[in-house]
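Quality-control log, excerpt.
Job 1 of 2 completed; input and output follow.
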Amino acid sequence: MERERFVTLVEQVLDSLPNRFRERIHNLAVLVEDHPPDNIANSRNGLVLGVYQGVPATQKSVFDVSYGPDRIVLYQKNIEAVCSTDAEIRHEVRQTVLHELGHYFGMDEEQLKDV
């Protein structure tokens, strides 16, 4: 899938979030890269489809100094590798964005099992 189309899918997922969630997202960048860096790819089991990098909203303080936005990075080639059709890619992009947003909002892996 062309990068532009993939990014459009990500934008559609973000735009489809309920307002009550979108209003609580601050200083967050959502990026697309082909593959994770070696230190991320080799530190987990299986293909890494996305990652949240930052301090969860539940742990932030008004006294924290910000060093830039938190980030969600989606790994396009890994997502494509686990999907066979455009519909599957669309579904996986949505699931991965929602999963990483869960981390942004302070949820752990146990809480995100069913997302």
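Job 2 of 2 completed; input and output follow.
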Amino acid sequence: MQIGDPVLREPAREVDAQEIGSAEIQALIDDLIDTKRATHGAGIAANQVGEAVRVAVVEVEEGNPRYPYKPPVPLTVMVNPVIEPVGAETVEINEGCLSVPDLRGYLTRHLAVRVSYLDRDGMEHEEVKSGLTAGTFQHEVDHLNGTLFVDRADPRTFATWEQFDRHQRDQFVERVTRLVDEVGS
């Protein structure tokens, strides 16, 4: 789904614990993984494929051609994720989105977050994510809340991928490389 589709603006409903193992939810998870990998995204939420349920996946493969500067993140399937900031420190990140094609912009994200969720088997997880990885998790949970990155970004910073590559990428990659070196992800 792309910006303008109403499903992207709906807060997604929680998935009942008994639903997690259903064929429908498991097929949705597989579809999210396949779609994310096919598009070289860093993550994708269920409402991005038209399903307003609280399911998202995050994964950054080594050498991701879309985000070569992001540190690797193993496949993480999140059902009913909840995020809370860890500390008050924030960082400015340049983001794009599969649902907002060919547009990027700068926004502020928490530098570290605690993520609580159920995995595809219904097992509970609680993890702290930091740096660019924390930003990716915040981006996906925003989707599940009906929020797009354009809602948080300074519109004066919007750029197409081509213009980002031409005028902003080198400076951004230099800055986030230092961030990754400092905080680990």
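Post-run check on job 2. The chain has five helices and seven strands.
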